[in-house]
Each structure stands twice: as structure tokens, then as C-alpha cells.
Write a structure and sequence with these properties.
The chain is α/β, with parallel strands linked by helices. It has 10 helices and 13 strands. Helices cover 31% and strands 20% of the residues.
């Protein structure tokens, strides 16, 4: 069986990250897993739609957009939380003090299908009064987006003075934001986010200032092709949902990045209703982006 992987950050070796869970499934079941690294969220969806894989690491938006061809197997959980957040940040010397200051400027964003990197931030910018036009399918009139991924967006903001703000998942930029800024802007983030504890831990490397925090978002799902009819499917899904914490972890000799999640809990498309609300507010269909 093929498991499609979509790296949220370009500098992550996602195949190696997933190796423990692949090895666990192979040890528990008569399956061999072939990982397929996709180039983007859209490519992940297209690979599933064309039958090139059975399971996939997807964006939360795929749980809504793919309901006719995909099933939610489970919701990924990080350090006890099945919710995460999107952040809009800036640099201390950008001259940007509020969201409306982004007007007429360049902004780094995630993939066009990324909920935390692009879609949720667009609703935040729209609610702040910026004209986003038909973005992310079209160009927003009030600012110029540079779409990439979470780590690239963060690096662009830190290193490129022409970029005045960035929208990313909190996992990418929260370490660069002083913790007290979250205390001031979002009690939900303080109480729910697994990134709150590490907020501010990388300000010595590069400090960022917080412009906005999203509402809590359901974490990304693991999804299966609806027409995957192999008898082993139910065993694979059950084994994944019941996997122990150590099945998501490498041994002590591993020097790379660990998986960002430590569990997968049962879920359905209904758990992603907040994503549907975002898509509705942006008046976009998933097909517009894929």
C-alpha cells in the first residue's frame, strides 16, 4: 500500500519522520508501506483522486473538499491537543503595527491549500478590512502574497526586508514570538496550544511580533481513499488508531526531526466544520485551488 506524505515545511525529511509508524504497521500487519512524498497539498489531493495511494497525510481542508472520494481515518493529536492555531507575525523593524499596515506590502504565506498558512489568515485579513479579492485563487488587491510553505514563509519574513508579515502555523513561528504577546492576544492559545510552552524560545535567534492569532482549528487528518476495498483496510485503520505513543517515536540514535504528532484519534468530516466555515467565508471551492 502507498502512503502519500505532504511536508508542511520544505526542510523536513518527512519520510524519515514517518518511518516509526510505518515500521509499526508493517510489524503488526501483513502489509508493506511505500511512502510517496507529494510536492504540495494540491498534489496530495490529486494523487489520492487518481488512485496513486491508499492513505495520506493531508491538510484539514481536504477533509471537507474530498468528502466524495476520501474518508477521514483519524485526527492527529500533538501533545494531547487535537487543535492548533494560525499566526500572522511581523518583524520588530517592519513598521507594521496592525494588520491594516500590510496594505500595499508583500506578505509571505503558506501553500494555497494550507489552512493555517493561507486560508485562515485570509479570513483574518478580510475581517480586519483588507481587500483579499478572490485569493488564494486570484491576486488580492490590497497586498502581494508570496505562497510557499511554513518554514519558507518564516525564513522570508526574517531574512527578506521586502516581506513585512508572514502567515504560518503556530508550530513554525511561535518560538520566535515572546510568550507574553500570546497572553495579551489569545487566551485560547494559552490554554489549548501545544506551542504555548515553547513560545519565545527562539527569540535570541530572531524575534517576531504577533499581529493575529486564529480561532482554534482542528488538526490535520489522516485520510483514506473511499474506494480502497482491500480487506486489510479495516485492520490498518484500527491499528493506526490504537497505536501506542512509542510507535510515533524514533530510537535514541535518531538525529532528525520527530513527528509533530503523538497519536491519531477517531474523527469524521463533521469534525472539520470550522474549515468549511473558512471556505464559505472565502467563497471558494476546493476545485478552484487543486
Amino acid at each position: 500500500m502507498t502512503f502519500i506524505l505532504n511536508p508542511a515545511e520544505s526542510d523536513v525529511e518527512i519520510t524519515e519522520q514517518y518511518r516509526p509508524i510505518f515500521e509499526y504497521l508493517e510489524s503488526e500487519l501483513p502489509v508493506t508501506i511505500e511512502p510517496l512524498r507529494a510536492s504540495s497539498y494540491a498534489a496530495t489531493f490529486q494523487n489520492l483522486r487518481s488512485g496513486r495511494g491508499e492513505l495520506a497525510d493531508t491538510s484539514p481542508s481536504a477533509a471537507i473538499a474530498g468528502q466524495d472520494i476520501l474518508d477521514v481515518v483519524g485526527i492527529r493529536v500533538a501533545f494531547g491537543s487535537d487543535k492548533y492555531f494560525s499566526l500572522i507575525t511581523t518583524t520588530p523593524d517592519s513598521g507594521v503595527e496592525q494588520l491594516t499596515d500590510i496594505e500595499g506590502e508583500e506578505m509571505a504565506m503558506g501553500s494555497t491549500l494550507s489552512v493555517s498558512g493561507t486560508l485562515a489568515p485570509l479570513t483574518i485579513l478580510k475581517d480586519a478590512g483588507l481587500d483579499i479579492g478572490t485569493a488564494p485563487d486570484g491576486d488580492p488587491p490590497d497586498f502581494t502574497p508570496q505562497y510557499s510553505d511554513h518554514s519558507t514563509a518564516r525564513k522570508q519574513l526574517i531574512n527578506d526586508p521586502s516581506i513585512v508579515a508572514a502567515s504560518t502555523g503556530a508550530f513554525s513561528t511561535a518560538p520566535h514570538v515572546p510568550q507574553e504577546q500570546f497572553d495579551e492576544k489569545s487566551q485560547d492559545f494559552v490554554e489549548i496550544s501545544s506551542e504555548y510552552e515553547g513560545a519565545g524560545s527562539a527569540t535570541d535567534e530572531a524575534r517576531l511580533d504577533l499581529l493575529a492569532v486564529s480561532d482554534p482549528l482542528p488538526r490535520a487528518p489522516i485520510m483514506a481513499r473511499s474506494d480502497w476495498e482491500d480487506p486489510v483496510r479495516s485492520d490498518v485503520e484500527e491499528t493506526l488508531l490504537n497505536a501506542p505513543t512509542e510507535a510515533f517515536q524514533h530510537g535514541d540514535d535518531y538525529e532528525g526531526d520527530e513527528l509533530w504528532f503523538s497519536d491519531v484519534v477517531p474523527g469524521t468530516a463533521e469534525d472539520y466544520e470550522p474549515i468549511q466555515q473558512i471556505l464559505d467565508e472565502l467563497a471558494i471551492e476546493f476545485e478552484d485551488l487543486s
